[in-house]
Design goal:
The protein is an alpha/beta fold. It contains 21 helices and 28 strands.
Length: about 800
């Protein structure tokens, strides 16, 4: 039946099309006939006009009677118009147009002859004109004109005859086709009558099936666990299911027609359509967390899934709602559990690993061979447990999006060297050598601790899976604007079946060569996530000759000066003139300082707030503000007030002494800067060194941690140990302290509460946070360094303490 209903209109349309085509052809033929008749008429009138002109010309030549000139002039004036109309009528006939062109040329020649003879008579030379006429000069041209006119008329008659025959043939074909179409139409209509009853029966069956499907879908909707709402294009509720009624405490009748904003904070107010304010893109849908409200006014968090449903009446939106209160509670419990695990496991592990490490280092004397072997086994397995706990905590941070990166200028080659040194002991135990190659500094911007974690992970894997006696190669270079660190092992390679899963969490290859090297299966997944958060990528490929090459690619930092030089105090030079800045940088570099250049006050402010500078060298005239105002702000900030400042400027120094006193400057050096005076001023700014007279306050409630830290820091200064905030405040209030090593979890509060008290004569005391917890987000502790227990060794803590004391200067004034 559907086929019949489809074909019948097609046949009718075909018949209409055929008839319309015939009518169009008939109209075209009539138009062509009319143009042909007009063309033949214009040809005759053209020839007649030429004859009239000839008669007038001859009469005037023979009689010199000017009355003959009137028909002559009239005929000449008509000839051009006849030719124009003739060309218009024959514009679609190239052959005819060529004949017309020839006729026009003959006409022009004849008219020129007429004009010559007429001019001869007018000038009194009638005899010459008569002789020209009698010689038949015009007659030859006129005979050629007659022949051309005859050819044009004959060709036009032949063309019309052919078109008439074609039209007759087309008409006969049209009649046959039309008759066939109408016969087919009658047959189809007859067949349609026989199908009507069957079609009606099928329609009734389909209606029943449709009702069943609708009832099934409604049952699914009503029994869904999640609340489901449909919203019309204006954002009003069209339908809600039973789960939504229970969730919001309102019936469907009460909810229908109300704005969705009464229940869910989906779209902000303002101008624009509901879809635009909703911010919903395509039809794929989105999942969001929003605030929801029950009918009684109670609010609760909700996870909503939004889906676009384009209908004829506009874009409807399907909203699936789930109460997120329980999920939030579980997340809070999970976060609390992770925090507890972080503290309760990392703290004792720090004591255990630190004590074992100190024993192996010979702090308690030389160990007997058997005892040393047992301590080495305990230390190795303790480190393994530390890595497992750190990996689990890192995975949790990544899943919760809580891993923060502390970005700073770094040298990837230096990081690779540090990773090699950190893993060398493990590689020696595996019988594997390590070989590092780097073409000088490779500047990047990143979190040094996290990138070091990535490289250590790759190196430990390479050493673990390489056979004894082989070498692991580490290559660091810059290529195509990317900083690349490649780690190559000589192992058996990665099985083909495992390559697609190598970066998945808890993924481990299954094979005889790998069962003896099982780990947590988290290291590569964490490394990949860290690298990608730095804007880079972690890849691998088979190595020529066997083994695997892992490559860390990071965006390279173009400014080589951004790389801090190891072991050198760092200075910040705020100077907008690049030439002057380069000269001063070279002077200070030759003196043994690492120099960062900030061309604006905004860059300088960000740099000093990041910390780590031994002194600031400042110009006062800068493109984005006054250096004096910047200095005043610096001195009012307790965290930055103690930074030594040297002014190097072209500003008049008439009142320099007063300004130096008010702003507590090391020196005010006029431009052009005297290099000797600048070197002397910098020496004064960073000359104070701690040595053995430093006093370090260690605040930690775990006595074992305090003991191993005291042993690790021996030789750097006197370590004062306290277990709580109260005793720490007492020590800071009554004793001279040069540096504070601080835990965050203390019996009487958070270690950060000690920060306001960590000052001496109004200047901040350097603080190193050494805790099982990371610094909280948004703490904004400028100049505070942080290490995580169990992740950072006691050697790393001692190194950071030494660096901080050397960089920040000695005993507080």
């Amino acid at each position: 039946m559907a086929l019949v209903l489809f074909v019948v209109p097609l046949l009718v349309l075909a018949a209409v099309f055929v008839l319309y085509g015939e009518e169009v052809r008939a109209q075209r033929l009539r138009a062509q006939l009319e143009r042909s008749y007009e063309a033949r008429g214009h040809v005759l009138m053209l020839f007649s006009a030429l004859q009239e002109a000839q008669l007038g010309q001859r009469g005037f030549v023979l009689t010199s009677d000017r009355r003959f000139l009137r028909p002559y002039e009239q005929a000449r004036g008509q000839i051009a118009g006849h030719f124009a109309r003739l060309k218009r009528d024959l514009r679609d006939e190239p052959d005819q147009l060529r004949r017309v062109s020839r006729l026009e040329a003959l006409s022009d020649r004849q008219l020129r002859f007429f004009a010559v003879t007429v001019d001869l008579v007018r000038t009194g030379r009638a005899g010459e004109a008569t002789a020209a006429v009698r010689r038949g000069e015009g007659k030859t041209t006129m005979d050629a004109i007659r022949r051309e006119v005859a050819e044009i008329r004959a060709a036009e008659e032949r063309r019309l005859a052919a078109r008439a025959r074609a039209a007759d043939d087309a008409t006969r074909r049209t009649e046959i086709i039309t008759a066939g179409l109408f016969l087919s139409l009658v047959a189809l209509l007859f067949a349609a009558v026989s199908l009507v009853r069957r079609g009606l029966r099928e329609r009734a069956a389909l209606a029943r099936k449709r009702d069943e499907i609708a009832a099934r879908q409604r049952a699914v909707l009503e029994n869904a666990f999640d609340g489901i709402l449909t919203l019309n294009p204006s954002g009003s509720v069209e339908t809600v299911n039973r789960a939504a009624e229970r969730l919001f405490g309102i019936s469907e009748v009460e909810a229908r027609g109300r704005d969705v904003g009464n229940f869910l904070d989906l779209a902000p107010g303002g101008e624009g359509s509901f879809r635009d304010r909703l911010g919903l893109g395509g039809t794929e849908g989105e999942v969001r967390e929003v605030a929801a409200r029950r009918a009684g006014g109670e609010t609760f968090p909700a996870d909503v899934a939004l889906g676009l449903m384009p209908l004829t009446g506009g874009d409807y939106v399907v909203v699936t709602v789930r109460d997120a209160s329980e999920r939030k509670r579980v997340e809070a419990l999970k976060s609390e559990f992770v925090s507890t695990v972080s503290h309760e496991l990392r703290t004792p592990l720090t004591s255990i690993a630190g004590s074992l490490g100190l024993l192996l280092a010979g702090v308690a004397g030389e160990l007997p061979e058997k005892s040393r072997r047992l301590v080495e086994i305990a230390h190795k397995n303790c480190q393994r447990l530390v890595r497992l706990i750190n990996d689990l905590l890192d995975v949790e941070k990544l899943a919760a999006g809580k891993m923060e990166l502390k970005l700073a200028p770094l040298d990837l080659a230096e990081l690779a060297a540090g990773a090699v040194e950190e893993i060398r002991g493990f590689a020696d135990r595996q019988g594997v050598g390590l070989r590092l190659s780097a073409d000088g500094p490779v500047p990047v911007t990143g979190d040094g601790d996290r990138l070091l974690q990535v490289l250590v992970n790759l190196l430990s894997n390479a050493a673990k899976f390489s056979p004894a006696g082989s070498v692991v190669d580490v290559e660091v270079a810059t290529a195509s604007g990317r900083a690349v660190a490649r780690v190559r092992d000589r192992g058996a390679g990665i099985p083909d079946a495992f390559r697609d899963r190598i970066f998945e969490r808890f993924a481990q290859a299954d094979g005889a060569d790998t069962r003896g090297h099982q780990g947590s299966g988290l290291g590569l997944a964490i490394a990949k996530e860290i690298v990608e958060r730095h804007g880079g990528r972690l890849t691998f490929e088979p190595a020529p000759g066997g083994g695997t090459i892992f490559a860390v690619e990071l965006p390279a930092t173009p400014e080589a000066d951004a790389i801090p030089e190891p072991g050198r105090p760092r200075l910040l030079l705020c100077e907008d003139d690049p030439d002057a800045a380069e000269v001063l940088r070279q002077v200070l570099h030759a003196q043994g300082f690492a120099v960062d250049v900030a061309p604006t006050l905004a860059r300088a402010r960000a740099a000093v707030e990041a910390g780590g500078y031994a002194a600031l060298i400042l110009d006062l005239v800068l493109p984005d503000g006054s250096g004096l105002e910047f200095l005043s702000d610096l001195r009012r900030d307790p965290a930055l007030a103690g930074l030594p400042v040297i002014v190097a400027t072209g500003v008049d120094a008439a009142d320099a002494a007063e300004r130096v006193r008010l702003l507590d400057l090391v020196d005010w050096i006029p431009k052009p800067v005297d290099p000797q005076r600048l070197r002397h001023a910098v020496d004064l700014a960073v000359a104070a060194r701690c040595g053995e007279g430093c006093r370090i306050l260690h605040v930690d409630d775990d006595p074992d941690v305090r003991e191993v830290v005291a042993v690790a820091l021996a030789g750097l200064g006197e370590v004062v140990e306290v277990s709580n905030l109260r005793d720490a405040r007492r020590v800071l209030a009554g004793e001279t302290i040069d540096l504070v090593v601080l835990d965050l979890d203390l019996p009487d509060g958070n270690g950060l509460e000690l920060m306001p008290a960590a000052t001496a004569r109004g200047l901040p005391i350097p603080v190193i946070v050494f805790s099982a917890k990371d610094l909280p987000a948004g703490a904004e502790l400028r100049g505070v360094r942080a290490l995580t227990k169990s992740r950072s060794s006691l050697e790393a803590l001692a190194s950071l303490v030494r660096e901080t004391l050397d960089t920040r200067g000695g005993s507080t004034p």
